[in-house]
Amino acid sequence: MENVTLRILADKLNLSVTTVSKALRDSYEISEPTKQKVRELATALHYTPNAYARSLRTGKSETIGVVLPEVADHFFALVINGIESVAKTAGYHVLIYLTHEDYNREKEILEYIRKGRIDGLLISVTKETTVADHITKFAPENIPVIFFDRMMEQVEVPKVVTNDFESCYQATQHLLDSGCKQINLCTISDNLIISKQRIAGYIKALQDNNIPAGKDNILFCREDDNSYTQIYNLLKSENRPDGIISLVDKLTLPVYIASEKLGLTIPGELKLVSYSNNPSAGILNPSLTTVSQPAFQIGQTAAKLLISSMGSKRNQVLNEVTVIPSNLVIRASSGQKTN
């Protein structure tokens, strides 16, 4: 099938290419009868605009880049849905790049997309990312950047996050109120700002209840392949906890499996809270008490800020931090009935 171009439409209608182009863009310079004729022919011949040619003319790709660790996590899947809902309405395409928690991969991706492939960037950094040189390179290119969830405080761009300190304080206090005497945290990183804030909230809750708090009660599961073994050994130890807060969803199932293997009942001998947006939380046995993060809203808000920052009001959102609260959903695993 012949590729229908503006030139073909113009020749068939005995009009200039400029007139046809303006008619398709609904320009005020073109009369309504002419616009109607152009639209009807374009529809009849199945004309579609050449996005590459348009980007050359406008200097815009009409594409948003999203860089994140993974999509298997329900949190990030919901964030993407939120981003897509805003981007589609605004006429932008979304390109998704996965770093798989690899800092070097993150650098490679950002170097690749910085060369004119996107109009703006939404990013949640890897657990290995401690420096931001590869991110600050976008500013001289006039490509706005927005952090969501995992952010870097030293980079002065807008950030969309949740209340990590307060939510972990609340989760810790909830387990204390449920009768726990020794609460451990399980996390994947001590580099991430969100991990540091959650750990700080946990420690503050213990201190406010006159309970000694320290890093000895924090289990860092940095390698996915070894997470189950670490959790199993923790629960098998003589000084095992009677409460666990999992700071990431992927560490929740290993707690259930290890507990079953060791004959520990949840919530009788071990109470559990997890940061999770997993829709199966309510049907696990026992059902899982969760810190439910506003993932979809985080994605929506980040996308709206990015699109706004790509317009003429870019400076008005510089270094703005938007905090959207999480919600503690109490179920059976923490030993208290849902309100």
TrEMBL record:
<feature type="domain" description="HTH lacI-type">
    <location>
        <begin position="4"/>
        <end position="58"/>
    </location>
</feature>
<dbReference type="Pfam" id="PF00356">
    <property type="entry name" value="LacI"/>
</dbReference>
<dbReference type="Pfam" id="PF00532">
    <property type="entry name" value="Peripla_BP_1"/>
</dbReference>
<dbReference type="GO" id="GO:0003700">
    <property type="term" value="F:DNA-binding transcription factor activity"/>
</dbReference>
<dbReference type="InterPro" id="IPR001761">
    <property type="entry name" value="Peripla_BP/Lac1_sug-bd_dom"/>
</dbReference>
<protein>
    <submittedName>
        <fullName>LacI family transcriptional regulator</fullName>
    </submittedName>
</protein>
<dbReference type="InterPro" id="IPR000843">
    <property type="entry name" value="HTH_LacI"/>
</dbReference>
<keyword id="KW-0805">Transcription regulation</keyword>
<keyword id="KW-0804">Transcription</keyword>
<dbReference type="GO" id="GO:0000976">
    <property type="term" value="F:transcription cis-regulatory region binding"/>
</dbReference>
<dbReference type="InterPro" id="IPR010982">
    <property type="entry name" value="Lambda_DNA-bd_dom_sf"/>
</dbReference>
<keyword id="KW-0238">DNA-binding</keyword>
<dbReference type="InterPro" id="IPR028082">
    <property type="entry name" value="Peripla_BP_I"/>
</dbReference>
